[in-house]
Write a sequence for this structure.
């Protein structure tokens, strides 16, 4: 009898304990739901709550800037960098920028004594601080953080997220036995695994054509040689980010962090970086602006120096670079001005019908269909754009919109909307007679 009473007593206590736990769980669930809603709701709000943020945390987060360096480890420990980019992300505006810096950029002190060691990509083999300082001297951005990404990281990451859907802009065929490098990709949209992603990122030009004795490369309207390669790298990075940030990949976060740990050299503190993660899941690559440092390719030392050997360098245009940095990283501070008709315009707001009529477009037919091409031209003219040059070009699977001068992002997005899609890129050429070149791809829907 006594034992039965004790059992009943224990059951009562257990029920009370379970009740308290249940009530606590309900209370915590209500509090968590409330905090998640206060933090913006959805996956972003939930992650913000998990890491201890409140509704004011995002407001106090500064824009995040980092120097990204891509290194091919198969070239040895002291290999120069293949890729040099500056990336920024603003969690409040959900805007991001990606700026490519040509690896042959001249950073020496005297053009008359220029040698290959004066190229910016050679500084990495000396020290990270050297190349970080050179980038800051060029951009005036005061970047504090860097991340050196080994080629293996992209291969593993792409495989970890089950491949990346990407539109390969052209047929890529190249072989270099000395590097054990073999590239063989067909143009068009496809799912790239890690191996194919590496081929894509390393392609500059094809094998020597025995007839023309030239190396086939990206078409001029896309951006040839290194310019085309940098554009492809930027576009691919955007695709990787977009697909890595899919909600289903949140369960692969541990694997992704493990890949980063093995293949990443950085001065970033994870405790600093984790504050941005809850808001980064909201990011859309449509809000990313990409470009490349403007300038020209030339040989140094100059002929007048009388040097025995001359080398190819990229020479940045300092004035144009300063203007580009302003547009990419400080668009909210661009001042409004007046055009010759007295209308108020700004660097980042030029989408009026009056502005469209001043935009000159070169439209090339890469769709293989005259009816598609005619419809695209009709749509563009119907929106007020001036189509000045038209011709056929090699076939492409996806429509390509290339900014040749200083078109505003809103205008480029309007062209994209008018055509029902297409990738946007930049290949600045101040001597160009048109503001943008458009290649109508097979994907264009004329209905």
């Amino acid at each position: 009898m006594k034992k039965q009473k004790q059992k009943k007593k224990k059951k009562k206590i257990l029920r009370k304990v379970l009740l308290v736990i249940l009530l606590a769980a309900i209370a915590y669930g209500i509090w968590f739901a409330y905090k998640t809603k206060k933090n913006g709701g959805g996956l972003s709000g939930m992650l913000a709550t998990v890491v201890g943020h409140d509704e004011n945390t995002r407001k106090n987060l500064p824009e995040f800037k980092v120097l990204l360096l891509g290194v091919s480890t198969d070239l040895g420990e002291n290999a120069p960098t293949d890729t040099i980019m500056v990336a920024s992300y603003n969690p409040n505006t959900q805007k991001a920028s990606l700026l490519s810096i040509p690896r042959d950029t001249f950073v020496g002190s005297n053009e008359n004594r220029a040698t290959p060691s004066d190229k910016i990509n050679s500084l990495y083999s000396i020290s990270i601080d050297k190349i970080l300082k050179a980038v800051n001297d060029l951009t005036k951005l005061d970047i504090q953080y860097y991340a050196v990404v080994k080629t293996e990281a992209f291969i593993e990451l792409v495989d970890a997220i089950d491949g990346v859907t990407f539109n390969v802009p052209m047929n890529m065929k190249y072989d270099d036995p000395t590097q054990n490098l073999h590239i063989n990709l067909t143009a068009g949209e496809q799912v790239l695994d890690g191996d194919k992603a590496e081929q894509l990122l390393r392609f500059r030009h094809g094998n020597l054509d025995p007839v023309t004795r030239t190396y086939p490369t990206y078409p001029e309207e896309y951006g040839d040689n290194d310019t085309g390669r940098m554009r492809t790298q930027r576009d691919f990075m955007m695709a990787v980010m977009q697909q890595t940030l899919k909600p289903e990949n949140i369960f692969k976060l541990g694997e992704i962090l493990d890949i980063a740990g093995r293949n990443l050299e950085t001065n970033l503190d994870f405790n600093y970086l984790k504050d941005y993660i809850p808001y980064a899941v909201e990011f859309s690559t449509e809000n990313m602006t990409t470009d490349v440092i403007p300038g020209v390719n030339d040989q140094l030392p100059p002929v007048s120096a009388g040097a025995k050997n001359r080398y190819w360098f990229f020479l940045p245009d300092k004035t144009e670079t300063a203007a580009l940095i302003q547009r990419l990283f400080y668009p909210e501070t661009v001042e409004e001005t007046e055009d010759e008709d007295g209308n108020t315009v700004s660097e980042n707001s030029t989408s009026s019908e009056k502005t469209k009529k001043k935009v000159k477009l070169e439209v090339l037919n890469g769709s293989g269909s005259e009816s598609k091409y005619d419809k695209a031209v009709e749509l563009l003219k119907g929106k007020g754009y001036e189509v000045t040059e038209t011709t056929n070009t090699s076939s492409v699977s996806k429509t390509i919109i290339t900014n040749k001068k200083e078109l505003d992002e809103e205008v480029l997005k309007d062209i994209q909307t008018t055509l029902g899609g297409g990738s946007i890129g930049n290949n600045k050429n101040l001597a160009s007679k048109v503001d943008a070149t458009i290649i109508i791809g097979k994907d264009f829907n004329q209905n």
About this structure: The chain has 13 helices and 19 strands.
